[in-house]
Structures are given as C-alpha cells and as structure tokens.
Amino acid sequence: MSSRRPTPRTLRVTVTSALLVGSLVALSGCSQVAEMFNGMQGQQPVAAVPTAAPAAAAAEMAFDSQFTYDGSVALSSDVADDLELRLDVWAQNPKRTQEWTPAAEKTFGFAVNVHDLRVDEKAVLAQKRRVFISSISITSQTAQTSGQIQAPFQFSADPRSLVPTDTIRSDRGLLLNSFQGGLYVPETVIHGLPADTYGMTLEFAMTVWVEGNANDDASFSQQTVYQYLPVAIFSDAQAAAAQPTPTPTP
Fold it and tell me: What is the pLDDT of residues 178-220, one digit of tens each?
C-alpha cells in the first residue's frame, strides 16, 4: 500500500457550493447523514476552557487559512496520471468564518469525488478508471497562544455507512467517479475549543482503491491520500469587530 502526500498544487479555491453540490450524486435524507456522521465521532466534544493567556495575545496571532478567507476550498491529489481525487470543504454554519470562535459550534460540509482527465466528464463509467474509497478519517491539531496542542475533533468511518444504500459500491468501498457516485457529507460540527485557540488544522486521510486501466478489475491498487485543511479561529472581540455595520434607517 502506498501513501500520497499533497503536492504544492493541492490547494485551489473552489467554486461556489451550489455548483459543487450540483456535480455530486444526489442524496436524500441529508439530515440523517449528518446525524450519523456526528454521532460516529470518536471523541466527546471538548468544552471551551479558560486559559491564562490574555485575549490580546490571541488577537495578535495570525493563522493563514484559504478556507477562512473564502469560506470554501478545493483540495486535490493525483492518484494516477491524469486521475485526480478532489476534496471540497465549505463553511456551513456560521457561513461567515470570522464568526468561528472557540466556544461557538462550527459546522462544515465536505465532499470527495474523482475526475479521470483522460476521458470526457460525461463518459460512461466503463470508459473511466474507477476509484473506490474504503475509509476516511479526520483528525485535528490546535494552535494555541499557550503553546499547547490538542486534538479536539476526531472521526473515522467506512464511507458506505454515510450514504444511502443505493449508492454504487463494492467490497472495495464507495465509488467516487463523477456522475456515478461520490461521498457527500452536508454537515458535521466542531464543538468547543480551548479558549486560547487561534487556529486548527484538520487532517483528512482517505484510503482508496484505484483502477489502473478502465474496466479492468485486475488492475486495482490501494493507497492512502492525505489532505490538510488549516482553519483560523477568532476571539469573541475579533468576531464582534468583523460584524457588518448596520445601515442607519432614515
């Protein structure tokens, strides 16, 4: 089994969530999927705890995050020549990422899909190199003004348990190819963080089976793909200062 770490080309700003969802397999019962996903998190929510670090110290710390700047990102990895695995992540609630504070509930959605660039996007499945995802895990690491590091958000699951039973699958996992499949999780929640948190990095680890030649069951090989998502966290004062000024009523 091989592992692929992200290359410098992995981070690109995504299109709007509306276009993203339109390209994914249509799923029903999104609220049930979200409840299942959140219920399977491997660790109880971490309550926001006080810290000796002053609020001013957190306000001075910067945490670079394209996700925070734009509210969504597309992260991609090449799993074979001209075969791209794509992870899209977007802020769900609050959608204004400057309102993501340690104590707030922070909800995001994500989707995993694959694109075979050797054929047309609308080509039939038999013409594409198939990719199945057999497991996905998410771990976290905080950046805190106190210098401490914690892992408040953790999750691991078989993707087949997160989607309706009529989604295309096999013993290798859930099919990811565009128009024929994909993993779509509409929302999951990051609960309370330590009060001096000014950033957090999420690591996505996805085990996939990749077909070497289209329509060739004997050509599959397994690998693990990693993607890293930095997320900025703001103090209550920063979040309040970022609120839009209401327009005075004449």
Answer: 877 899 999 999 999 999 999 999 999 999 999 999 999 999 9
Tokens representing residue 6 in the block: 């992200």
Q: How, if at all, do strands 83-93 and 131-144 pair? A: unpaired
Place of tokens 């769900």: 92
The domain spans of the chain are 2-241
Give me the CATH code for the 2-241 domain, please.
Answer: 2.60.40.10
**Residues in Cβ contact with 87 at an 8 Å cutoff, skipping those fewer than 6 apart:** 74, 75, 76, 110, 111, 112, 204, 206, 227
H/E stretch holding 142: strand 131-144
Structure tokens at 123: 């080509």
Q: Is the pTM of this model over 0.85?
A: no
**Tokens coding 22:** 């339109």
Contacts of 138 (CB under 8 A, 6+ apart): 153, 154, 155, 156, 202, 203, 204, 205
